[in-house]
């Protein structure tokens, strides 16, 4: 069956707009757009049949349907012809049971969704495969697109550059100079993107890239383009599928530009509308205290005021004027949502604690989500037997400097605030067996080792 989808205004303005048109805001009111699917047509297949179809494609080698995104093509982007799809087997990422960390925290059922185990090392691949595939089809159909452009704090630029290189489409990325990790900077360089490092922050880069996208031939790849969110919503579907179609109690996700929050809600919405689930999880958005406009709004009846984002270890969410604020608030209201924040010390210690307790290697943004988890457990909002999923958004290997400086006690803002709970330094010794034995014997076992098993 041929399924269809189109852009519609999130404010409810009349009319639809084709998905292969360079349009990012409603021409009537200027609000953001979202992708609306023909749910009536999708309902002609039963919930059981959809589950069977998705299971038959899961992690298979039949291109492109083994992808975690394109295995749900009918729900994501049905208009793209298979031969135009640009996929690098994104999605299908692991769920790790953080048993020991959960036990130390007082939880029985804590899981980490490792979205950083993807081609470019972040969840951004889920959305970029959709956007670049649509652009590739636009070009094949004779539409004028000479480049795809984005503003980025690192991960978006890496993902765009990789997928654009695969497709042979020029990519332009605008980065705030000196505010992304070396690993993040080198990724788009290696993939041939034109990298422009601007003397501003992400919000400044975003203003300029929107002006670029207003010119003919430059296509916008940031998450205000709702094509991205269609791929990112598959995280919600994957989580439920990995639990044999059971819905967790809580999902905790870091929030910066806030597109990922609404994408998460969209995935659960679609499963509920098509009968695959009957329960909704509660959604938590975790923000760095240094860049917390959503958190502040949640304390003031959702009245939004942009902030000047301060420097934070969680550089990818150092955003003071998030484009998808309205979409995020709508999702949080529907999903009985919570917004929490984390200081620099809290995010650094949380990331290190989970590393030590569960063999993880968390990025600082995941540290923000973990810090929010810790606060909600200690406040009694998350209960011992709740099933909790923390979304890990990027691979910690992109942030080795963050990890090294933590264990050296050299994270200026975090260490000054007392983030040293889990520091683990190498011990320098002479080439002497007795010195090695003394060091081993003198080391006290970690406190967690003396805790009883449940």
Summarize the structure.
This protein is an alpha/beta fold and 454 residues long.
Q: Helicity level, as a percent range?
A: 25-40%
Order of helices and strands: EEHHHEHEHEHEHEHEHHEHEHHEHHEHHH
Mean pLDDT equals 93
Q: Please mark out the parts with pLDDT under 50 across 5 or more consecutive residues, or reply none.
A: 448-454
- What's the CATH class of the domain at 95-121 and 229-416, please? Alpha Beta
Reported by name, the CATH topology of the domain at 95-121 and 229-416 is: Rossmann fold
The biggest sheet amounts to: 6 strands, mixed
Q: Compute the gyration radius: what is it? A: 22 Å
Distance between the termini: 51 Å
Task: Describe this entry's structure for a reader.
- This protein is of the alpha/beta class and 454 residues long.
- The protein has a domain of 215 residues: Rossmann fold (3-Layer(aba) Sandwich).
- The protein has 18 helices and twelve strands.
- The strands form three sheets. The protein has a six-stranded mixed beta sheet with strand order 3-4-12-9-10-11, sandwiched between helices.
- Helix 7 links the parallel strand 6 and strand 7.
- Helix 6 packs parallel to helix 7.
- The longest helix has 17 residues.
- The chain is globular, with a radius of gyration of 22 Å.
- The termini are far apart.
């Amino acid at each position: 069956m041929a399924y269809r989808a189109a852009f519609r205004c999130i404010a409810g303005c009349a009319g639809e707009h084709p998905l292969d048109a360079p349009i990012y805001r409603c021409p009537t009111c200027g609000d953001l757009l979202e992708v609306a699917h023909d749910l009536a047509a999708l309902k002609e297949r039963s919930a059981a049949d959809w589950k069977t179809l998705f299971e038959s494609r899961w992690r298979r080698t039949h291109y492109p349907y083994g992808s975690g995104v394109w295995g749900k093509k009918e729900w994501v982007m049905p208009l793209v012809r298979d031969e135009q799809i640009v996929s690098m087997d994104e999605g299908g990422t692991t769920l790790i049971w953080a048993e020991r960390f959960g036990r130390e925290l007082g939880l029985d059922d804590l899981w980490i969704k490792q979205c950083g185990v993807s081609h470019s090392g972040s969840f951004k691949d889920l959305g970029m495969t959709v956007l670049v595939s649509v652009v590739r089809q636009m070009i094949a159909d004779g539409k004028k697109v000479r480049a795809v452009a984005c503003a980025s704090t690192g991960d978006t630029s890496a993902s765009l550059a990789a997928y654009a290189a695969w497709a042979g489409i020029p990519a332009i990325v605008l980065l705030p100079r000196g505010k992304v990790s070396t690993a993040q900077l080198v990724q788009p360089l290696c993939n041939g993107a034109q990298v422009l490092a601007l003397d501003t922050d992400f919000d400044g880069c975003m203003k300029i890239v929107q002006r670029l996208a207003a010119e003919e031939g430059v296509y916008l790849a940031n998450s205000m383009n709702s094509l991205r969110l269609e791929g990112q919503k598959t995280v919600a579907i994957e989580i439920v599928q990995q639990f044999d179609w059971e819905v967790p109690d809580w999902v905790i996700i870091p929030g910066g530009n806030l597109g990922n929050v609404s994408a998460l809600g969209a995935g659960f919405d679609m499963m509920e509308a098509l009968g695959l689930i009957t329960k909704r999880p509660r959604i938590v958005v975790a923000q760095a205290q240094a860049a917390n406009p959503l958190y502040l709004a949640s304390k003031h009846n959702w009245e939004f005021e942009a902030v000047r984002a301060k420097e934070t270890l969680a550089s990818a969410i150092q955003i003071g004027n998030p484009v998808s604020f309205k979409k995020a608030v709508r999702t949080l209201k529907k999903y009985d949502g919570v917004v929490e924040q984390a200081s620099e010390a809290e995010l650094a210690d949380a990331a290190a604690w989970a590393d030590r307790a569960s063999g993880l290697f968390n990025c600082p943004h995941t540290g923000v989500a973990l810090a929010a988890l810790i606060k909600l457990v200690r406040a009694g909002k998350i209960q011992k037997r709740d099933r909790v999923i923390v979304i890990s958004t990027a691979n910690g290997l992109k942030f080795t400097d963050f990890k090294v400086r933590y264990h050296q006690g050299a994270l200026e803002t975090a260490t000054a605030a007392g983030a040293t709970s889990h520091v683990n330094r190498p011990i320098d010794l002479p080439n002497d067996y007795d010195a090695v034995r003394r060091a081993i014997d003198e080391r006290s076992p970690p406190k967690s080792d003396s805790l009883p098993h449940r």
